[in-house]
Amino acid sequence: MGEGRRTQVMLLDERRLDIVVQPKLTVEELLNIVASHCHLRDPDKHYFGLTFLDDRQQYHWLYRQRCVLDHDFPKKMYLSGVSIILYHMIKFYVHSVSQLAYSPTVELYFLQVQQHISRGYFQVDSKSMFRLSGYAMQAYFGDYVNESVAKNRMKRLPLFPASLLKEYPSLAHCEDKLTEIYKSLFGMSRGAAILNYMSLVEKMENYGMHFYEVKEKSGASVLLGLCSKGLYQFDVNDPAVTRQVRTFSVITGNNWRTYITGIESFRSKFMIQNGM
Question: Which of 92, 90, 115 is closest to 104 using CA atoms?
C-alpha cells in the first residue's frame, strides 16, 4: 500500500484544511470531510467540488468517483515535501440562492462571487459595483463607525476591479463614494447584506460562469465562460468584454454537468472555430 500525501484544502472563508490523503481516498469522500468543516449538508453540498491550479493558473476539477491521488497534478506538487493544494469551490450554481436549503451555503456563494467580482470576472457597471462593495463592507465588518475606520476596512478587503479604477481619477475618489454608500447601510444585518448582494449579482450576465482559457483555430488565446445560459467568448485580457455568445436552446441539469465535464476533460484539445 502506497503512502499518503500531505494535502491542503483551501476553503472559501480563507481557512486551510490540512489532511494526509491516503491512496484509496476518493474525491467524494474528501468532499464529505470538507463539507463537515464548512457546515454543508445535503442537498447543498453537491453544488461544490474540488479543483487545483495548473502551471498556467487555470482550474481543473477533480472527478468525484476517482481517487484523489489518481489525478494528474502539476509536476511541482510531486516534489519531495511539497503538499498538494486543492480548492473547495462552487461547481454548479443555482439561479438564485433562495433555492439553497441552508444559510451557510448562501454565505459560501457570497464569498466566491465576491472574490470573482473583485478580480474583474463580471460585467458590472460602476453604480452597481459601488453598491455591491457597500453590501460587502456591511457583511464583512458590520456597521459604519467613522470615515477613518471605514477607509482602513477597505484596505483589508479587495473590492475594486482594475476596470473600475480606470473610470475614476483616483483610488481615494472611489473610497469616498463607497464610504457614503457604506454609511447609508447602517443597521443592516449581515444576512440582509449578503442577500441584497446576491440578488443584485444574480441578474448579471456573468453570474455562475466558469472560465477557461483556450486557443482559437488561428492559435490566438481567448477566454470561454461556461454557464447554464450558454457559452460566452471573452477577450482574454479583459473578462468584462464579451466577444461572442452562444446560448443553449434546451438544457437540463444533467446536460449541464455533462457539458462542463466534457470541456474540462478535453480543454487542452478544444479549438474554437472562428464562426463559433
Answer: 90
pLDDT above 70: residue 180: yes
Instruction: Flag whether 274 is in a domain.
Output: no
CB 192 within 8 A of CB 199: no
Per-residue pLDDT at 227: 78
Residue 219 pLDDT class (50, 70, 90 cuts): confident
- 196 and 112 in a common domain: yes
For 57-178, strand residue ranges (E) read: 59-61, 84-90
Rounded to 5°, angle at Cα 5 from 77 and 269: 45
Residue 275 belongs to some domain of the structure: no
Domain of residue 44: give its range: 5-90
Q: Minimal CA–CA distance to 88: which of 126, 150, 134, 45?
A: 45
Q: Which of 90, 106, 131 is the last residue of a domain?
A: 90
For residue 253 the three cell numbers come to 441539469
The DSSP secondary-structure symbol of 252 reads -
Q: Give the tens place of pLDDT for each residue, 105-118.
A: 999 999 999 998 88
Distance of alpha carbon 194 from alpha carbon 207, whole angstroms: 15
Number of domains in the chain: 3
CA distance linking residue 26 with residue 89, whole number of Å = 17
Q: Rounded to an integer, what distance in angstroms lies between the CA atom of residue 31 and that of residue 15?
A: 15
Q: Nearest 5°: phi and psi at 60?
A: -130, 125
